[in-house]
Amino acid sequence: MTGVTSAPWRESFDFDRCDIRYLKVKDSAEKFAVVQFGVCPFRWDSNKQSFIAHPHNFYIFPRQEIPGSQSYEFLCQTASLDFLAKYQFDFNVCIREGISYLSRSQEEEALERISSIYMAESSDSVFGLREDAEFPLVRMADVLFAERMKNTIMEWRASLLSKGSSNSETKQISTDPNQRFQMVFFKTRPALALSGFTSRQLRVIKAVTRKHFKDLAYIRVAGEATSPQQLIVYTDSNDDRDLLMKEVKDGLHKEAEIKVKSAVGFRHVIDLLSSERKLIVGHNCFLDMAHIYSKFIGPVPLTAEDYVSSIQKYFPFIIDTKILLNASGVFQKMVNKSNTSLTRAFVSICPQIALGVKNSGLADRPCVEVEVQVDEKRSSNWNSGAKHEAGYDAFMTGCIFAQACNHLGIDFSLHVLAGGLAKETKLQNYINRLYLSWVSGDIIDLSIGKCTTDSSASSNLKSRYQEISFPSIILLWGLPAKLKAREIRACILQAFGPTSVSSVYHLDESAVFIQFSKPELVSKFLEMKETLSRKSDPISVLHPLSNILNGEYTHAATYDVYQQICSSSISKKLFADQAEAVGIKHKTMSSWAEQGKKETRYLTKKTKLECLMRK
Fold first, then answer.
1. Is the confidence at residue 169, as pLDDT, over 50?
2. Phi, psi of 63 (to 5 degrees)
3. Nearest to 488 by CA among 470, 510, 469, 459
4. Contact by Cβ (8 Å): 116, 237
5. Which of 199, 460, 570, 574 has the largest CB neighbor count within 10 A?
6. CB atoms within 10 A of CB 306
7. Comparing C-alpha atoms, which of 352, 333, 337, 438 is closest to residue 400?
């Protein structure tokens, strides 16, 4: 990938709810490009009692393959590019030879756009004849050229009518010394093929043909080269002319559709993986799957629930090896709990493959052998043992999964006939459960769309902020420069009491989370902040909160506004700038507090009324 986070505040924080974490992954998948894709199918060989791995490493690059379509844009992080360069990533090969692609939604939109053009508009407007018929001849050179072309076309038409022609074979007869006109047949009709003219000269010829020759049609058809072929075709009647234009129009429509289909590119690989409905194995792969969705399926849904229901249609069985490693006590002993990176896990779990060590140490259970098969065409794109090469990463992921299955006591031979490992009973507790955030231990279940916290996550990775209560959190941004968390905490404690604040956490230099000990303190803080922002009397200036407020530049909001800001496609570097760009600048939240009060009063009155009705 060309990057991971589009702004520092879009990093994963302890105070992020599951829906916020999803929005941050969504933003990353939409903003950054995938430049290398690794796929490694594994096949069990019952005779050899081993797996055969077929690693593939693809450079991909999003080109503008369809004429008239919008050019791709994506972000790059210097740290990510430096990381790729460190591991010998070939940027030249990626840009020059990388396979382009279209997502399903992009393909559908392109085909719909083409159909609407060819169905809604007349032939003349599609081929540009209507515009060129009114082409103004303002230059003397244009007037003289138009007269010459009129005479040449008239002579050809006259000779055609006087001699007649019934031969349907293509003829190429020189009609001028410069070989710019050639006599040909187009769909059994006599025609003149034009070559060697400038675009302006061709526009003049189109205008002349349209104005002076009712039985001649100027058309553009697909040529053998990249540029289209320009023809002047003779038609017997108006009906024949209409038929010709329809044939040309249909041909151009089909040609445009073929270009779209050919631009699908690397998505053919993704479509194949989807159609097989096999078990897809990744390592900490929620972001990977989000990239696959964004690049090859369509826009990533706004909510995790919609994303889950959609991704399941294309990939019904996904497993995360990070879940497997963390769930097994044997693997936890072998791999450092705080570092289950792919490379470290591969060396620890599969030393016989990674290092050539015979004994893997998996409780005396024999290792699963893996044989690599790479044909000559792919050997140049496969670098065995290359760190952070996508194809080799896919291979390592598959090897870890094979050893994990072996440790669970799965008999691979049984699944050759049964149709794969997706229905294996011993894997059902792990399938479709992916880490939304490994640091927090949040797991999303793709089968039901629910998010849970992994209770078995290592203790040193758990949040240092215990018992996070989102209704008790406010967001404060636009703070005075270089204000530290302990200073903010001290000011609030002075105003609201020594036990009023549980924690203060910086998003970036311009914004903080403040968690109060009680939810009701949120509305009190917002009201006081609003009051102090409006007043500038001595009492207000001496108030403890005035030290952390920066007049009209400081704003506060409830946690739900944080969700609103994160859902925006805008990504400013500072959170304060982001909030302003999204349009939250003036919501200093007395209005939010007032709204909460109104809802409380309404509910209280409603409750009293219901009690009276019961009596």
1. no
2. -90, 165
3. 510
4. no
5. 574
6. 12
7. 352
CA distance 249 to 163: 30
Residue 415 makes CB contacts below 8 A (sequence gap 6+) with 44, 421, 424
Q: Which of 226, 227, 267, 257 is nearest to 62 (CA)?
A: 267
Spatial distance between the Cα atoms of 582 and 137, rounded to a whole number of angstroms: 51
CA neighbor of 9 nearest in space, from 529, 488, 572, 534: 572
Q: Which structure tokens are listed for 140?
A: 């003397």
Cα(121)–Cα(553) distance, integer angstroms: 53
Cα dihedral sign for 391, 261, 3, 96? positive
Who contacts 545 (Cβ-Cβ below 8 Å, separation ≥6)? Answer: 491, 492, 495, 528, 529, 532
DSSP characters over 259-287: HHHHTTBTHHHHHHHHHHT--EEESS-HH
Kindly report whether the global pTM for this prediction surpasses the value 0.90. no
> Do 53 and 372 form a contact (C-beta atoms < 8 A)?
yes
Helix (H, G, I), strand (E, B) or coil at 357: coil
Q: Residue 301 carries which DSSP code?
A: P
CA distance 244 to 255: 16
3-state secondary structure (DSSP) of residue 12: coil
Cβ burial, residue 348 (10 Å; 0-12/13-18/19+)? buried
- pLDDT exceeds cutoff 70 at 224: no
Q: Which residues pair with residue 42 across a beta bridge?
A: 53
* Separation between Cα atoms, residue 28 and residue 257, nearest integer Å: 32
- What is the average per-residue pLDDT within 471-483? 89
What is the percent of the chain with per-residue pLDDT over 90, rounded to a whole number?
42
**pLDDT confidence tier of residue 466, bands split at 50, 70 and 90:** low
What does R_g of the chain's alpha carbons equal in angstroms? 34
Q: Coil, strand, or helix at residue 136?
A: coil
Contacts within 8 Å (CB) and 24+ apart, 448-454: 448/308, 449/304, 449/305, 449/308, 449/309, 451/18, 451/304, 454/326
Buried b (16+ CB within 10 A) or exposed e, 9-19: bbebbebbbbb
Q: Among 52, 32, 55, 54, which Cα is nearest to 44's?
A: 52
Distance CA 123, CA 245 (A): 6
User: Which alpha helices (DSSP H) does 480-589 contain, by range?
Assistant: 485-496, 520-534, 538-541, 559-566, 575-582
Q: How far is CA 141 from CA 18, 150, 200, 230, in A?
A: 70, 14, 11, 22
Please report the pLDDT score of residue 594 as a whole number: 46
Tokens representing 410? Answer: 């799965």
Mean model confidence pLDDT for the chain: 82
Residue 53 β-bridge partners:
42, 372
- 234 contacts: CB under 8 Å, gap ≥ 6: 157, 160, 189, 190, 191, 215, 216
Q: What digits encode the pLDDT tens for the residues 133-157? A: 567 787 899 899 999 999 999 999 8
Which residue has 């797991």 as its token pair? 443
Distance between CA atoms of 264 and 199, rounded to whole angstroms? 31
| Ordered DSSP codes for 49-102 | TEEEE--EEEEB-----STTSPPP--B--HHHHHHHHHTT--HHHHHHH-B-B-
